[in-house]
Amino acid sequence: MIDFYSDTKTRPSRAMREAMLDAPVGDEQKGEDPTTLALEEQVADLLGNEAAVFLPSGTMCNEIALRVWMKPGETLIGDRACHIITSEGGAPAALAGAMVHPIDTAEGIFDAEEVRRVITPGSRYASGTRLVCVEQTFNLKGGVVWPVEKLDAVAAAAHEAGLHTHMDGARLMNAVVASGIGAARHCAGYDSVWIDFTKGLGAPVGAVLAGSRAFIDEAWRLKQQMGGAMRQSGVVAAMCLYALDHNVERLAEDHELATELAQRLADLPRISAINTPQTNLVFLDIDETGPTADEVVDACFARGVQIGAFGPRRLRLVTHLDVQRSDLGPLKDALSAAMA
Length: 340
Ligand SMILES: Cc1ncc(COP(=O)(O)O)c(C=O)c1O
Fold this sequence. Notes:
Blueprint: E1 2-3, H1 14-19, H2 34-46, E2 51-55, H3 58-69, E3 75-79, H4 83-86, H5 91-96, E4 99-103, H6 112-118, E5 129-135, H7 148-160, E6 164-169, H8 172-179, H9 183-186, E7 192-196, E8 207-211, H10 213-225, H11 234-246, H12 251-265, E9 271-274, E10 281-286, H13 293-302, E11 305-306, E12 308-309, E13 314-318, H14 328-339
Parallel strand pairs: 1-11, 3-4, 3-5, 5-6, 6-7
Antiparallel strand pairs: 2-8, 7-8, 9-10, 10-13, 12-13
Helix pairs in contact: 2-11, 3-10, 6-7, 13-14
The chain binds pyridoxal-5'-phosphate (PLP).
Residues 8, 57-59, 83, 135, 139, 168, 170, 196, 198, 207 line the site of pyridoxal-5'-phosphate.
């Protein structure tokens, strides 16, 4: 199987697995796992924050942050297609009691004016806005990179109004590599931020949420409450440390491959739109005359190629550690046959 479905499909390399063999471990819940502590310290430094906490997934990072920042009944602002709103099983409502004010944008990027326009002060009647969420890079609009000036302006507008700011950095390191601007600069205006190790960085489990010491203390209480505390998590944290050392700069290769992929697929029949990838995500819109996205996915699967359907006429293809240039030919052949 050639798998362009997602960068979450990466499997840990032999060298990454070997990194866990000698990792010192202890009871993580009690703060005694040296490898997890080292990972948290390294990520806190990378993101310019005081402290960080290791969590099983990015979704848990988002949901814990929402619970720290919001009281039930308060409102968060985010793009309508952001992961927090579309893909976390209703957790903002179920776990944080959050109201959601979705913003419609072309690329997942909004500006300070938009934030000022939609902020609602709380009253006897209205739910007050409490949190602004951004996603760097923006997944469902094609891995678009927020310019740091926009990130700063949105954060400043939120803080002026007394709101908190949160960055979903599932693919922040892709943005860092694509922009050449350090991670801490991207999230400088954000009260909480996290990075995922299970996407382009290629580790099997884990995400790290960062913020002030007080934020992380409260996040830890909620981690314990939600069953996210671990024991000898150093075996997994060791793979995340390996990922930081070995798999960040190489994200540039994924971005180049995504660009090449988009160029090579542009002349396929029945493609009505294709993004110019800034990072590793390619979205193809297919026209109404042929098969649906689900049918294309099934036909490609039958030819040994996995891709994703993200809407009745939208396909997503993702480049990552486990696909290479030589996979583009079979991908194109499978798509051509499927479209026909
Ligand atoms: C933008 C974004 N945020 C959050 C997540 C959730 O991360 P995890 O799969 O680690 O829970 C994803 C996963 O695909 C994502 O793409």
